[in-house]
Design a protein that fits this description.
Radius of gyration: 22 Å
CATH topology of the largest domain: FAD/NAD(P)-binding domain
CATH class of the largest domain: Alpha Beta
Largest sheet: 5 strands, parallel
Helix content: 25-40%
Number of strands: 25
Strand order of the largest sheet: 3-2-1-7-19
Number of helices: 10
Number of domains: 3
Distance between the termini: 44 Å
Shape: globular
Oligomer: single chain
Length: 406
């Protein structure tokens, strides 16, 4: 591998940064260019909902700013890749210049989905995808409510918790029978719903929004039932779409995201991909799909960088994510599938619970609220495909950390 080669990483997210540093850690001596379209140094995106109303300085950087120079990583902020040309191995930039790249890694992430609703462009209708969004939303929360959240996913429920803690009147509108239903299952989703309702959040399920109403600025959310819910701020949290345009226009196979193998390789040997934008055949998924979480992006970025160097390692780490709500951590490891047996510990309450999913007797997933150490132990059990009787897992007296050490 020549020291004159140049590798270009597009996207200063967790996957892109981890890939750039991994190239150096695994011996690449050529040039590493990291392109970031935003003007902020790469930051930890999960922190956005935790620093609402603070300045951008409150964001936690992924890496110390000086470490890029120390590792000879050419970090270029405010630089957007516009087009990839595999034939000439060129990355064309939005400013009209171009870069030669012996290999390219795409870590372009996802964008907030904007529903096709009347009034979606009104002032006060916000998403949460970057520091500017966080500053605007933080100011809106400080100005007071009422706040209406469209979508009861993890980001939506985190925003609801922040707004309610600040004293706002908060309503969450969820189209499904319960918030976070797909991820947690009905029993845990109902506990999380009760957790928020006990703190004063109005949660409406099976809710269908037909319009956002207002004169210049949003004033109300209109439901199919005819109910008008007053709102000075509406937070749109109805999912994301993958930023796969660069790949698709370059002829790379995309199907709901950039399709990669276990090593981060795409259908074009010049292009690799990692992070939320990828559709991956992860062993913990029932079928190839996207895993939109920080921990996965970091791990996959390293694996993709190794593949760029000709070192093939499977990306098969147990998926993990966490969400902070009212100062407590909601965590999940693994991925349950339809047909798995769910085991909820008998002492479960809306403010504290621990649950497991079993497949063929083995622990394949776990989730908990305010049970950080138990979730860490469960992750080790999942990695070992450990099997335990249902009664033992349901018993609050069972020491999971002791089981994980055994």
């Amino acid at each position: 591998m020549s020291g004159t080669e140049q590798y270009v990483v597009v996207g200063g997210c967790a996957a892109g940064v981890s890939a750039a540093f991994a190239l150096r850690q695994h011996g690449f001596e050529g040039s590493v260019v990291l392109l970031e379209a935003g003007t902020e140094a790469p930051y930890r995106r999960p922190q956005l909902s935790k620093v609402l109303g603070d300045t951008p300085d409150a964001l936690r950087p992924i890496a110390d700013p000086e470490s890029y120079a120390d590792r000879r990583i050419d970090l270029r902020l405010g630089t957007r890749a516009e087009r990839l040309d595999p034939a000439t191995r060129t990355v064309h930039l939005a400013d009209g210049t171009s870069l030669h790249a012996d290999k390219v890694l795409l870590a372009t992430g996802v964008a907030a989905r904007r529903p096709d609703l009347q009034g979606i462009g009104l002032d006060g209708v916000l998403s949460l995808r970057d520091p500017d969004d966080a500053l605007r939303l933080g100011k809106a929360i400080r100005d007071g409510g009422p706040v209406v959240v469209l979508g009861g996913g993890f980001i939506g429920m985190e925003v609801a918790a922040v707004a309610r803690t600040a004293g706002c009147e908060v309503t969450v509108l969820e189209a499904a029978p319960a918030p976070m239903l797909a991820a947690l299952g009905r029993e845990l989703a109902d506990l999380v719903t009760a957790f928020h309702r006990e703190r004063g959040v109005r949660v409406l399920t099976d809710a269908r929004v037909t319009a956002l109403d207002g004169n210049g600025a949003v004033e109300a959310v209109v439901l199919a039932s005819g109910e008008r819910i007053p709102a000075t701020t509406v937070v749109v949290g109805v999912g994301v779409v993958p930023n796969d345009r660069l790949a698709a226009e370059a002829g790379v196979r995309c199907d709901g995201g950039i399709v990669v193998d276990l090593h981060g390789r795409t259908s074009d040997p010049w292009i690799f991909a990692a992070g939320d934008v990828t559709v991956q055949p992860h062993p913990h998924l029932a079928a190839a799909g996207r895993i939109e979480h920080w921990d996965n992006a970091q791990q996959q970025g390293v694996v993709a960088a190794q593949a760029m160097l000709g070192e093939l390692h499977d990306h098969d780490t147990v998926p993990y994510f966490w969400s902070e709500q009212y100062g407590l951590q909601l965590q999940m490891v693994g991925r349950p599938r339809p047909g798995d047996t769910q085991v909820l510990r008998k002492d479960a309450t809306p403010s504290k619970f621990m649950a497991f999913w079993l497949r063929d007797g083995g622990v394949v997933a776990a989730a908990g609220l305010d049970t950080v150490r138990d979730v860490v132990a469960a992750r080790r059990l999942i990695a070992r495909s450990a099997s335990f009787p249902v009664a033992q897992l349901a018993d609050p007296g069972t020491d999971l950390r002791a089981l994980a050490r055994s």
